[in-house]
Amino acid sequence: MISVVINTYNAERHLEAVLRSVKAFDEVVICDMESTDGTLDIARRYGCRIVTFPKGDCVSAEPARTFAIQSATHPWVLVVDADELVPDALREYLYAQVQRADAPAGIWIPRKNYFMNRLMHCHYPDYLLRFFVREGTVWPPYVHTFPVVKGRTEHIPARRMDLAFEHLAKDGVADILRKTNLYTENELEKKRDKRYGLLAFLWRPFFRFFKAYVLKGGFRDGLPGFIRACLEGHYQFIMLAKMAERRAL
Q1: Residue 110 near residue 161, CB atoms below 8 Å
Q2: What is the pLDDT of residues 55-74, one digit of tens each?
């Protein structure tokens, strides 16, 4: 009834823990982008069905998402990253939802993120549209996008933290800076028709900082919350700088 789909590329670090958390679903599909580490050995050991998507110059999983989703054999799909745990309570909740006569076509699931060993208030609930009907669902091939689902969607209440994905990545400052460089490159294609003026260089970074630190409660996380909010603003500045550079070339 429900297929779990996991996109992987050199994901051996957390994959075994992730697969243990999803083993009770009807099917687990690994869509691998030509890993060179032990990812596929772990997947085979857990009896996963493996499909391959050529990595090429992909810097994120999004170009392979639609292919991975359509590789599933069950009508409902739960997309899980290779560094996310699925709690038993979430699995039970999703199976209950698909039994409803008025079941939504998609469900937004909260995720718990950590930084400097603290749960980040500014990154919770971090809603992700990761559960949906397989038929007709497509995923735009750009970083930081969500699938396009045919039909109504619902959000799991943020107060249900027992149903949230557990993000194992726990990225440090160096990881975030590395991903900022990679992901902003992909953002250039997604935003290629947009034009931003000088004020955007002040407003967009400041607003992302303000949103993370004040509106979403990052101030409750002390110094780690302040640093994380600054990195949110930094991401926006780097993206805008790269867009301006591309137009100047």
Answers
A1: yes
A2: 888 777 888 999 999 999 99
